[in-house]
Amino acid sequence: MPAPDANAPAPAGTVLELTVSNHPGVMSQVCGLFARRAFNVEGVACLPLPDAAGEDGGGGLSRIWLLLREDQRLVQIVRQVEKLHDVRATRLLPGGHPVFSALAAHLA
Amino acid sequence: MPTLTGAEIIVRLLERQGIEFLAGIPGGANLPLYDALSHSRIRHVLARHEQGAGFIAQGAARATGRPAVCLATSGPGATNLLTAIADARLDSVPIVCLTGQVPSPMLGVDAFQEVDTYGLAIPVTKHCFLARSPEELLRIIPEAFRIAASGRPGPVLVDLPRDVQTGLASFDAWPEPGLPDAPPVPDPLAVARAASLIGQSRRPLLLLGGGAARSGAHRAARLLMERCGLPAVSTLHGLGCAPADHPLNLGMLGMHAARAANAALEECDLLLAVGCRLDDRATGRMDRFCPDAALVHIDIDAAEIGKRRATQAAVAADARLALEALAESLEPAPRLAWRVRVTTLGEQWGLRPPGLDDPRSAYGVIAAAARAAARTDGPDVLVATDVGRHQMRTAQVWPQVRPNRLLTSGGLGTMGFGLPAAIGAALAEPGRPVLCVSGDGSLLMNVQELATAVEQGARVKILLMDNGCLGLVRQQQELFMGGRTFGSGFSARADYVALARAFGMPAFDLAAAADPETAMAEAFAAPGPCLIRCAVEDEPHVLPMVPPGGANCEMICQEAGTVETITAKEAAHACA
């Protein structure tokens, strides 16, 4: 496997950062919503939050980063995401997020 | 410190939640829950198909406004529930669905009657849970009721693996029952902006939806109509919010509206949309909906605001609280010219359905049933419909005296809704009859629930409009498919009077009744269920009608099917 290329261009787009409950159905809830509302997701990254271990030891919260194309429907899809009960917090990052630059390096 | 099985915990939590009855069907994966239920005071209603159980719960929830419960086993039990759940989602009805599931260690191995219920439920529920331990139920069950009833209501599903039902949990104290969150209050700045736009408008129009009905916004709406010269139109679920015979109430808008209602939409310069989602059956072609109007949108669900059309002002809050705040902010305004214009529209282009005084005709029988029901039960009657021409006729001519009295599948348009929903409503409001207006196509889709109605002694009165075809489909074929009525006729006709009697339900044919209205009144007054068949083979089209995909201002108003443009803007601008 070749080493990631640190100089690969960062993918363009807005990043929607979500803090979600960490259980097996959450990715399905979030990604399914985008599919149902016919809104494209360009990239996905997800990790459990280390400081938020739940009572069952399985990790209480996770962070999901979604790379999205700017679109006039962005506000609408963010409002729909905010309605999901497993989504605890949302943050829009119009400048993107380094997690996707790091991921893109693996494609180069 | 109580130690109980998961199934016992669920039943005790349902009792603490105030649940008096629930509908369902037992099977292998929910038997522990059923066993615990056998020791409970909660009444179990054995449906004959899980979709029936789902709609029985919906009928109870729609009649009372409170969450109701249905049960199903895993696999086919759960998949059979899905249509009723999707229906509840689109019409914002609070139900809690408890499904059995294969034991946790068997999940994912294609066990007998295993299906990914959680995965199937995601797109059609407001929220769903997969319980992982008996302890977790103490949190999940109250939370399911809280979520179902809070904000914009909706269905919640809890999938219950068998080992979670049989496993033991010890705990210190029972959790509080899950109650709805306090309704979101309107932001004063948003209300001020909305009030300012309405204050400046010359021809404002109020659009009342299911959210207005559910939140109890009708009093504030009536106040605004009178004080500010705000005429009103309603969606299917908003009917009953505006006073029935008020000259400023133009009735339902959209595909089967009176011409007057759609003309007012065309002429208004501001639309105050309250508790509605501006769906396509109501708006017609969106780019030609209310072409001259600013949109002020009030909805409890912030995601509805701006979803279909950009707003000039918006209040994301409970409809009643928002309308009351608006009523306080707005100065009285006569808007005499606009009042006169709307009154004229109503007189000129109000609904004039054919055959209203013939109690054996498609429209007349509904009017006669309404009079007969009022004779036994007062004017405030619960009526459930199925989906089709009889549904639109009921919406057009049933005298809507109060909100939330018309139980109908609006968003999903599910044939088969009517009978089980009426059973649920009758069980939730015992002591008064619930009328179920249905068609032969719709009735057949959940006909097995005739048995449930008889078994429960539910006071459901089915008015069956029997035309031997899928009427609304046939109407579209006649109007838009060159008259080719393919695949929509029933060449094998059932004898529905005999069918009802075979289930043990009294039934009669209206054609044989000397005085149809009196025969119906006697049937409504009797205890238990009853089926009344009315032949309507020669029924006219449901008119007016906006062709699907068309603009609201272009309606078919005559049997011949020609599209007429109903605008009269010159007259409107005279009241500027």
What does this 3D model show about the protein?
- The complex is a heterodimer of chains A (108) and B (576).
- In chain A, 26% of the residues lie in helices and 29% in strands.
- Chain A is α+β, with helices and mostly antiparallel strands and 108 residues long.
- Chain A has a single domain (14-105), classed as 2-Layer Sandwich (Alpha-Beta Plaits), CATH 3.30.70.260.
- A 4-stranded antiparallel beta sheet of chain A has the order 2-3-1-4, covered by helices on one side.
- The longest helix of chain A is centred in the N-terminal third of the chain and has 11 residues, at 26-36.
- Chain B folds into 3 domains: 3-170, Rossmann fold (3-Layer(aba) Sandwich), CATH 3.40.50.970; 188-349, TPP-binding domain (Rossmann fold, 3-Layer(aba) Sandwich); 364-535, Rossmann fold (3-Layer(aba) Sandwich), CATH 3.40.50.
- Chain B has 23 helices and 22 strands.
- In chain B, strands 3-2-4-5-7-6 form a 6-stranded parallel beta sheet, sandwiched between helices.
- In chain B, α8 crosses α13 and α11 (259-267) runs antiparallel to α14 (336-349).
- The N and C termini of chain B lie far apart (72 Å).
- The chains are: A alpha+beta (108), B alpha/beta (576).
- The interface between A and B is medium-sized, with 14 and 15 residues.
